Backbone:
């Protein structure tokens, strides 16, 4: 059933329509600087489609809670335990109730964690409840950032994984992502790239205009028009909107946000006793605890400190203690490379290595380098992640020198860093003709104890066109790599995580 909703008017004066059924299959990205009218656009979309499709809104500022009075949305305060949020999300899907998850009042880390838990619960719902839902995420750059910023790596990975699930694999589960962002440059590319419909508003920064123009298929000169757009005006493109870029003026809305843009107001007349009014202390002032005058400096990254210590130690050896330097000559490039390979294997072979964060393992790596008196950081953080993923895959030197493996490394750059280890482990099994790893082995390679997530990773790789998953006549799973002309042999998805457990199970 095709349902077209009214989003406003086009530059030609015609009605600007949006096909809801097509939107559910192709997703939507809204971009515009602060004050461009993004929230107004989202509100128009939500109001016009409320009677046609279930809605879930991830609301960082609590602006959309007013939808509850007019359209019956349930307001969910995110200040709850993870178990409570998961239970609420499951019942939201089961009973097909529209809701607003308000994150207002939480710190950024807690906002990202709560949103991730809620989105993952929607994603993990039982197949019987995969009804279509319009999932709207305002300020999406907060939940799918290009870099960690001030939040921990664990929270960033959790939030980015949830957003990736929504935009990349949510369609099969009935989840249609609608994400809005102020800065395209701050939004993870693999999340933004999954949208097929776009509404681009007023944008001033060159980097954001360039990305917006690239998504819309425009050249550099055409991108300049984004600077001239008025508030509430957007350029629309996509199968649910228009086949060619089309200027749209968003229509009016029934509800309003609790917050609004500031308006100029004349100042009141100055009271005669203004000094007494201002400087006379209130009893509450004396009861308030004293606030620090200066914020505590942000702690430096441990990796930076380790690098400086390594550099300092090297300088001391060269200047202050020449006799010790003569006893421990600097490593040659060949020796350093051999040490890096051996150290990465040691770290990868640790029993809990997969469940420790990359930053923690990197600090361990730098400390080992310092003990060997290697100056500076032997590897950068991105190189360390990739080399560690290769070490964990189990590929030997001969395989790593093959053309197929080099092709696999090139393909691995198309996916997020956290999934490279899983992908290369599957590649190694395919090139060696080994059985397909079990769900437990795939989950452990990612650093989780949840074997259910393994199927999601395989589905994601398959949607990206990297692999083909099928079963043999015994029901064993096989993963094939079309670009490498290789495939694994049949493996039991429900098998143990490694060969040791398999032998123990057989005995």
Residues:
């Amino acid at each position: 059933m095709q349902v077209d909703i009214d989003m406003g008017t086009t530059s030609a004066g015609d009605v600007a329509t949006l096909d809801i059924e097509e939107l559910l299959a192709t997703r939507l990205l809204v971009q515009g600087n602060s004050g461009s009218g993004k929230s107004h656009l989202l509100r128009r979309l939500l109001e016009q489609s409320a009677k046609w499709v279930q809605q879930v809104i991830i609301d960082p500022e609590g602006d959309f809670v007013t939808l509850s009075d007019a359209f019956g949305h349930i307001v969910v305060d995110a200040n709850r335990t993870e178990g409570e949020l998961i239970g609420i999300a499951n019942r939201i899907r089961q009973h097909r109730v529209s809701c607003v998850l308000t994150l207002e009042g939480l710190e950024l880390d807690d906002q990202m964690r709560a949103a991730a838990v809620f989105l993952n619960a929607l994603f993990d719902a039982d197949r019987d409840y995969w009804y279509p839902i319009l999932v709207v995420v305002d300020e999406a750059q907060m939940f799918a950032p290009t870099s960690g910023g001030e939040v921990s790596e664990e929270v960033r990975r959790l939030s980015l994984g949830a957003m990736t699930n929504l935009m990349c694999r949510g369609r099969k589960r009935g989840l249609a992502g609608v994400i809005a962002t102020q800065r395209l440059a701050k939004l993870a590319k693999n999340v933004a790239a999954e949208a097929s419909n776009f509404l681009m508003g007023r944008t001033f920064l060159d980097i954001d205009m360039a990305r917006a123009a690239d998504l819309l298929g425009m050249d550099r000169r055409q991108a300049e028009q984004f600077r001239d757009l008025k508030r509430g005006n957007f350029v629309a493109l996509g199968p649910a909107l228009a086949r060619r870029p089309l200027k749209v003026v968003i229509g009016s809305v029934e509800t309003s946000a609790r917050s609004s843009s500031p308006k100029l107001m004349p100042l009141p007349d100055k009271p005669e006793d203004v000094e007494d009014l201002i400087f006379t202390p209130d009893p509450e002032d004396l009861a308030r605890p004293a606030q620090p005058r200066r914020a505590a400096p942000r702690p430096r990254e441990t990796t930076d400190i380790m690098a400086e210590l390594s550099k300092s130690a090297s300088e001391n050896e060269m200047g202050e203690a020449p006799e010790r330097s003569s006893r421990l000559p600097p490593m040659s490039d060949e020796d350093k490379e051999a040490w890096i390979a051996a150290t990465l294997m040691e770290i990868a072979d640790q029993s809990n290595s997969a469940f420790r964060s990359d930053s923690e393992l990197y600090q361990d790596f730098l400390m080992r380098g310092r003990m060997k008196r290697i100056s500076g950081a032997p590897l950068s953080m991105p190189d360390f992640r990739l080399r560690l993923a290769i070490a964990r895959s189990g590929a030997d030197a001969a395989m790593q020198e093959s053309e197929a493996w080099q092709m696999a490394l090139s393909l691995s750059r198309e996916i997020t860093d956290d999934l490279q280890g899983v992908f290369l482990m599957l590649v190694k099994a395919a090139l060696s003709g080994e059985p397909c790893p079990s769900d437990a082995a795939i989950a452990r390679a990612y650093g989780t104890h949840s074997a259910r997530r393994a199927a999601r990773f395989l589905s994601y790789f398959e949607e990206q066109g990297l692999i083909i998953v099928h079963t043999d006549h015994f029901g064993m799973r096989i993963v094939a790599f079309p670009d490498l002309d290789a495939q694994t042999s049949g493996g039991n998805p429900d098998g143990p995580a490694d060969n040791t457990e398999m032998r123990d199970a057989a005995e």
In short: The first strand starts at residue 4 and ends at 10. The radius of gyration is 27 Å.
